[in-house]
């Protein structure tokens, strides 16, 4: 199967290691599938040819011998349906992995992004002090529910799946804000995900492209 994945040539340092092609790279590495990365810049994003592949000009976009698609969660689910490394090879197993992928993207990430927007706002904004307790409380309720499900398990369904892969990438977004400090079980879970060799290979692949294409000082 010939796989092509789009990714950015370069992004500012604060975004490096967090661009969402990382999820797809990680899934491909877990599945042991070879792939080619097509690096794009702003001109590519705006081009008609790329917009036919990714209508919003974002990354990642993906194609193989059978499909052409975009959105990181959708791509990871496509790969999970084809690899026992990402989901139990049964209808029930794929359904559970898919459920956790969507839970990460719909039940956790929007609340995480709300907090990140507050934390990253220019200091001294009058609304910031009022808004932060609200978004922290909303996020903490979601994290508490996730923590309760995980309990003493290593992974959400007992074994690593695509759901853990996507959930780990969402929880990583909360490290700098300190939001995981109150949830040591979730922080340990996040670190287990990042310790997987496939994650390390995916991260290095993304960061190497940024090093190779860094603007001249």
General description of the model:
By secondary structure, the chain is of the alpha+beta class. The protein folds into two domains: 4-85 and 198-212, Glutaredoxin (3-Layer(aba) Sandwich); 91-196, Glutathione S-transferase Yfyf (Class Pi), Chain A, domain 2 (Up-down Bundle), CATH 1.20.1050. Helix content is 57%, strand content 7%. The protein contains nine helices and four strands; from the N terminus they run βαβααββαααααα. The chain has helices at residues 21-31, 42-46, 48-53, 72-80, 91-120, 126-150, 162-172, 184-194, 197-212, and strands at residues 4-8, 36-40, 61-63, 68-70. A four-stranded mixed β-sheet has the order 2-1-3-4. α1 links the parallel β1 and β2. α1 packs across α9. The longest helix is centred in the middle third of the chain and has 30 residues, at 91-120. It is globular, with a radius of gyration of 18 Å. The N and C termini lie far apart (40 Å). The mean pLDDT is 96.
Short note summarizing the structure:
By secondary structure, this protein is an alpha+beta fold. The chain contains nine helices and four strands, in the order E-H-E-H-H-E-E-H-H-H-H-H-H.
Name the helicity range. 55-70%
Radius of gyration: 18 Å
What CATH calls the topology of the largest domain is Glutathione S-transferase Yfyf (Class Pi), Chain A, domain 2
Number of strand elements: 4
Q: Strand order, main sheet: write it out.
A: 2-1-3-4
Give the uncertain stretches in residue-range form: none
